[in-house]
Amino acid sequence: MDRITHPTLLLDKEKLLGNIENMRRKASVHQIELRPHFKTHQSAGVAHLFRSFGIHKATVSSLAMAQYFIHHGWDDLTVAIPHNPRETSFVNHAFSPGVRLNLLVDHPDTIEHLNQTLDHPLDAWIKIDCGQHRCGLTWDDEARAASLVQSLKRGSKLRLHGLLTHAGHSYTVQTPAEVLTVHEEQLRRMTHARDLFAALGCKDLLTSIGDTPCATLADTFSPVDEIRPGNFVFFDLDQLFRQVCSWQDIAVALACPVIGTYPDRRQLVIHGGAVHLSKEQRRGPSGTSFGKPVLLDTRGWSEPLDADLTALTQEHGTITFHKMLDPSIKIGSLIGILPIHSCLTADLFPAYLCLDGNRLTKMRANE
Ligand code: PLP
């Protein structure tokens, strides 16, 4: 810690390993595949830790990310974003047939295009919209399902493997009970979609669901074959506020140097702004928060202080204490910030600094 000079993303590996073990156990109890989403950490070093739990399949959010993890020995990846036809030549040139690359499709035009331009056959999953309304075939749209199946049958380059959904609307609700309502609805809708495709002649399709809130809180998964949570590896305040995790589960904190103290208004200013944390925010009882301060020591961090990161510009953050400014924090001290959304914070850094002093580099370090 003494050597930290600028905003640095800290990783508590013990918490991270505990989070992976909890999710691994859940998948094992329910006999479902855990295909974690690596967009959260984007790090070969963190991915390597997953291997020690027997996890060999993963999810990514771009072909560039797939290429990075393949380079680090992963050979079964789902690209969980509808395929972008402008990248098909990249698929042809950069990915060997020996790697299992699962592509996502939800439009007959994308399927026609892939059938005409792919150099070798790949596995495809149809994205199903179970209520998020971002992308995907609406779960009960029979006419569109039939047209997707027709398009698949017209070519030989895509092997339909399964149906994949992401209940991202679990992030629009506030309580565990509401998350579980979203989850139960997605199970019903995926069952319906699977039966719809079976009636169209596509039998034995696998079903895959995403999101950390549902995967963490749920205790029933049938008919699901696979879960793809990503955020659970770090968790964050957004999950804490929704009671998906406890503060002890949050595995990353941003270490920020204190560059101003203003006791008359109970505020500190840190070097740590939107370029380090993103502008993710949450409205709580004490107003808008961009993160929660914690005290740092060599073993990690304290519970959240009675304070919030209340303002954020590009490089500066303003911490407001709700009662009294902590007198132990001085100019030049380091203070930790638990992020609102750890995926976006992690995305901004080239590496993690582990509490044991080791660095784990990320995909961004190669840019
Ligand atoms: N699957 C898809 C398609 C996603 O878009 C995401 C996250 O955005 C995930 C899985 C992982 O969900 P979470 O971030 O809640 O862990």
Describe it for me?
The strands form four sheets. Strands 1, 11, 12, 15, 18, 19, 20, 21 and 22 form a nine-stranded mixed β-sheet that branches. Helix content is 30%, strand content 28%. The longest helix is centred in the middle third of the chain and has 24 residues, at 176-199. The model has no long low-confidence stretch (mean pLDDT 96). It is an alpha/beta fold and 367 residues long. The protein starts with 7 loop residues before the first strand and ends in a 6-residue tail after the last strand. Helix 5 (108-117) runs parallel beside helix 6. It is elongated and about 70 Å long. Residues 37, 59, 80, 166, 210-212, 228-231 line the site of pyridoxal-5'-phosphate.
Question: What would you say about this model in short?
Answer:
The protein is α/β, with parallel strands linked by helices and 367 residues long. The protein has helices at residues 13-29, 44-51, 63-71, 88-94, 108-117, 142-154, 176-199, 212-217, 237-241, 274-277, 342-347, and strands spanning 8-11, 33-34, 58-60, 76-82, 100-105, 122-129, 137-138, 158-165, 206-209, 226-227, 252-262, 267-271, 282-284, 287-289, 291-294, 296-297, 300-301, 307-312, 316-321, 334-339, 351-354, 359-361. It contains eleven helices and 22 strands.
